[in-house]
Each structure stands twice: as C-alpha cells, then as structure tokens.
Amino acid sequence: MELTVRKNPISHLIDRILPVQKDEKASPHPFLVVSYFTEDNEYVDHASKLRASLEKWRVPYSLTPIKTSGVWEYDCSQKARFMRDAWENSTVPIVWLDADATVEAYPALFAEIDADFAIHKWQGWEFCSGTTYFGKSPIARKLLDQWVLRCEADPIAWDQINLQSAWCDIAATEALKTYWLPRPYLQIFDAPEESPPVIKHWQASRRPKNDGRSSPQPQLALTERGIQLRTSHVPWRRSEEAFWIAQGTAHIKPEAGTEFPEGFDIAEVLREAINGEWPLLEIGCGVGRIASLFSPTEYIGVDINPNAILQARRLLPHHNFRLYDDGYAYPQAPTALFYTVLLHVSDQALPFLLEEALKGKHRIIISEIMDTRWRREGNPPVFNRNPEDYILLMQQLGFQLTFVNKTPYERYDREPLNVGRDSRLTTLAFVAVDS
Fold first, then answer.
1. 235 occurs within a structural domain
2. What ranges in 248-349 are assigned the alpha helix state H?
3. pLDDT, tens digit, for every residue of 16-72?
4. Domain of residue 18, CATH code
5. Contact, 159 vs 149, CB < 8 A?
6. How far apart are CA 253 and CA 336, in angstroms?
7. Is residue 320 part of a domain?
C-alpha cells in the first residue's frame, strides 16, 4: 500500500517559521520540527493541537497532511522516508514529533545537542520514535537510509522497532554519536512524571480503530534476552549478522528466486520432509527462492537481511515475509526449515541459534551440502558439517531424526568441485521427542 502525500513535506513549504523575539536568546544551533498527519481521520484534531503548541513556543515547524493508506502500520512506516526527505531539504537538524504530541515548554535541548541522533528509551530499553532528532552529519544520513530500508522491507513492523534495529546496524560499524533524551522530552500522558514535561505524547494509537485499519499480522515478540540486549547502549549485532546485513544480497546464491540450480525437484523433497505440518517457517529465507515453491497459506519467511526481505516481498507480494532481529521470538509454526543457512553459522553460534529456533516447533528440517571438506575461510566463511554433527546436536536438543534424503546437487556435482567431497544436497527432518 502506498501513502499519498498531498504536498512536498519540506521543499521550501515550511508551514510557519516564527522569529525569535528580541528579548529571547537566539538558538545557537537552530532546528526544525517536522511531522505528518493523516487528514482523513482523528489525527487532524491532534495535529491542530500540536501546531498551536509549536506556535505558542515559537518553534519552527512543518506539518504535512497526507491521506491514509488504510493500514495504520503502513502509515507509520512512511515516517522513515518522510524524515529522510525532510533531512535532505533542511540546512539544520530536524526533530520529528508525532502528530498526537504537544509541546509543553520550549525544547531548548534540541538547540544544544551535539550528536548524530537522539531518542528516548522508554523503561531503559525501548526506542520511542515519537520524539526523534537527526543531526546534519553523514552518519545521521546513513542511519536514515538504513531506517528507510528496514521500514520498506517490513512495513508491518512498528517504525520504532525498525529504527532500533537500524541504530544497531549503523552503531555496530560506525562511530554513531547518540544522545539519549530524558523522559520529559517523551512524556506519555498517563505515565508517572520524573520532572515537568517538555513534550507530551497523547497516544492516539491506543484508541480502537473502528474502521479496521490496523494490520491483523502480529508484531514479533521481544524476549527477556532481547530486552537485556537493548537495555545496554552497546550494539548487539554479532559479526556474522553484521556481515550479511551490510553486504545486502551480494553473497546470496543463486541471486534470483526463479533459479533452481539443484537440478532436481527440491519442492517434492521438502514437501515429503514437511509431512503435512503447515505452515512452514523458513529461517533465513533470503530473496524468496524457496518461498516460491509454496503458496502464501503454506509459508512464513524470516531473515535478518533487510535487502533480501525487500527483494522477496517484491518477488512474492502475497507471501508473509518478516524482518528478524536478535532478541525476538520466531513466528509460531509447527515446522521450521533451514535451507543452506546453517553452513553460514559458526560452530560457536550454532547451538544457541537452534535452541531459539526450536521453541514451539514440532518438526525441524535442515537441508544443505553436508561434508566438512567443503569448509573454507573467506568472506564469507562456510562451516559445512557432516550429517552426524546435526543428528547429535538435535538429539541433545530433544529432537530425533525421522527423514533423510540425499540427491546430487547439479551445480556442485561436477569436476573438480566434487572430487573427494560429497556434492549431494542432504535433507534431514527431525521431530520433537516429547511430542
């Protein structure tokens, strides 16, 4: 769904820039407040209150009316691109305020921040994008770009979830200077106050959406470990995750969802391994190649790579693809599939990844070329294992082997690649013992 913007959000169309009175101290670092509001629902009234409060405190602002897409989450996901457009067209740092916020006192802190990015963490861990600051720096632009990418890859995820993951992406590899805003700059109207609020948020999103415009798809659930990871101000990105996120789809082989170099009917093998336990959750779904073998009702795909998820959604717009990040529970499904994924996971990280993936699952399928002689260092490295390695590990995790298929993988079953190495695609299916 596309969001219709009635007019260019910035491009010299700032609604009103109020001069600072002579008896007031001029801002050492000017800033601009930007926001949009849907003009065909209750947010119009909220935006008028925000406008009045900005004018009361003589804060430069631009408020832009838009038409709703019909899905609240899609409307919110457009915030990232709107902010990037505003940032590109502004000569000063920009501050986003949700349309259902009001300014209760002059926000002097925005004129003093020396950082690429500023946000408040609610309860010490949750990004609250209702008040967000972006400085005019190259790293701020990188963060905006990554936020846009993640929101377009998974527009059902709340924009603040995508922003927090984007922050981790950039902070893990760049010297991203972050300022953590105090509570008065994101004061929820019915929450305890630590001190008098500067910006108050009235949480219109809590109210029932009687027109049914909220998506029926659930948000991914954050685990206790996920909360702990996000409580720290340190990025939680593992090196192998950072590699695949940063590289986009450059190392995904084959590149397209319509290419099947296996040389045999892999769909038939997988359906036999699934044994009727639908839907299938593919962990590490890439660009949607395997997803194309199944109907939308049979399949859910997740991946840590936003470029891959974006390409998969474009290839199969009716399938359910979600962007995953460390610290979230995987979507519920009876069967999980790892298709040529675990060979990219280090031996140290493998047990934990499997343990997290197995929760709530009855059947696990692992399909890849299994022979340690294929292992190699490099960029990226590969960690091929023997079937016995997976069988032993899955037994330790409470799963028993119930299905085996070994079929030559045409792309690799040729000299000199197959000399002295098993070039067959091995598919193993395991079932929970206690079931």
1. no
2. 266-274, 306-315
3. 434 333 334 444 579 999 999 999 888 999 999 999 999 999 999 999 999 988 898
4. 3.90.550.10
5. no
6. 21
7. yes
